[in-house]
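Weekly modeling sync, notes
Attendees: S.R. (lead), two postdocs, one rotation student

Agenda item 3: backlog of single-chain predictions. S.R. asked that every request posted to the team notebook include the full sequence so nobody has to chase files. The rotation student volunteered to paste the first one in as an example of the format we agreed on. Action items at the bottom.

Example entry:
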Amino acid sequence: MYKQYLLFIFLFLHSLYLFSGVLQAQAPSANGSEYFLRAEEYRVQQQYQHAISAYENAIKADPSNHKYFLQKGKCYYNLKDIDKAIYCLEKAAKLERKQVDAYVGLSQLYKEKGQDDKVIYYLHQASIYDDDVSKKLDYKLRVLQILYHKNAYKEALTHIREAYALDTNDPELLYYAAWASNQDKQYQKAVQAILQATPKIRYFKPQESAKYYYQLGYAYHHLAAYDKAKEAFEKASYGSLKASVARFMPEHQCKLAYAYQKVYDMDKTNQYLKQALKMDAQMPQAKKLLLQIEQNNATEDMLAAMIRSAEMERNEDEKVRRYSKVLDIYMSKGNYKEALEVVNSCLEIQPARYDLRFVRAIAVYKIGNKEQGISELYQLAHLSVLSSELRSLFCFSLGLLYKEQGDNKNAYNYFKKATAGVYRVAALEELAALQAQ
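Predicted structure, as returned to the notebook:
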């Protein structure tokens, strides 16, 4: 009996010893480092699920270790589980505010989710805590790239000032500084930024330096330094920038003046013509248009004589031609009631003249019969026998009337249909203005 009792005690103690060993083997290590090392091996082998399980054991042992969350987040990213990756990296950043890798990773994750504000925030955090100056600048440039594409120049100015503390001569930074200054109407600052970048960009390929010279030309143009602007724009006229450069040429301003003159918007005609002549006082097309406008400043006596001449003319074609000169003067002066009387007389003789019907539609609209004017112009724009230029004139004019009525949807649609001649140039300007609203 005594021997059996001793055997029972021995077996009981032995089982306790074995059980304690099992518990010890199953319990996580005090700091989780063993599980972490095992997880890293799994991660390197791309066994991400196994790695995640091991990281979770490490976290249970030491939930305050930011590295465990960071590496676990990397695994979730590789498994394309963006939301869980974000959770882990944000946890790592909370545990260690200087965890730059977490900030950089979060900026990438939120970029994939299309959340620019979060991307900017985490890149900014990375720029604060990273000790590497070149990396800090890179983070700022990435922020500025986002703001540039969003045209958020006011927000960009803050980041530019912070980036200047890191490097005042980086060409990409100076480009963004010039762009933001131009958008902020600080044109002299834009000039200074590009001139500061010039020693470096002169070694760039022309297609690479074009964007810098575009900002320089833009600034000089708004400073009315047109010769310097022209020189800069010549260096900027590459690839996709060609169309943008063209908008700042006197030829472009003259085309706009012609387009608005054809629809009898004399305020805009004079605005663009004046600008074209400022940029090139000897421009032939601009001087020709100026002469036409001056000829329309006829006195009442001159107009009366022209009307009598038309009334006395027996040849119908010549009569309409003479009336048309009077009509053009009345429309240019804004005498729409008188113009309507004249155009109606012309249409009695030549009712199929689309150009006369166009003037009538504008005159009807201008005297206050807006719906009727738009209706008449709408019918003209949808005729099937028009030349592309005449159709573009009608569509451009219809877009202007819809815009004046606050119907931007129809305005947009008809501006897009103006695809020929000077009307296409003016329509593109109008479209850009609508899109900027």
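Discussion: group reviewed the output briefly. Residues 1-30 have pLDDT under 50 and may be disordered.
Action items: rotation student to repeat for the remaining queue; S.R. to check formatting next week.
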